[in-house]
Amino acid sequence: MRARPYRPYPRRAAILARRTPFTLGLLVLLLTCGAATGSLWHPVAASALLARVGYGPPAVRAGRTWTLVTGIPFTLYPWMILTIAFIVALFVGVYEYRMGTTCATLVFLTTQIGGAYLAAVAVIGPLASGRPAARGRLGGAT
Question: What mean pLDDT, rounded, does the chain reach?
Fold first, then answer.
């Protein structure tokens, strides 16, 4: 069995960067949006930015479905950015390294957008039923 040749660390990093451009771009986008909007330091949950880029039942009900895409790089609280960056680097990065950039991009966008939309619809459905029990449990107006 032949030993693999030693590759210096900078070369390994360059190979990793070439094989995971989507993951690196997503991490840069996440951190850039966090720095530009101040959500790296202050919660977005109490700001007007949440009404513009936040996704979920209120946005879907109002017909702002584009927020399912534009809300991806934003987080409610500063600690969430670090958690999401870690998860993206670990899972999306490894998947992209093994399966390729195109496949990783399609899988990420499909699961992110589809999952957020399905979750919003799952909450809107019971609220639209008019049942008081559903409205009380899911936070709808009574």
Answer: 81
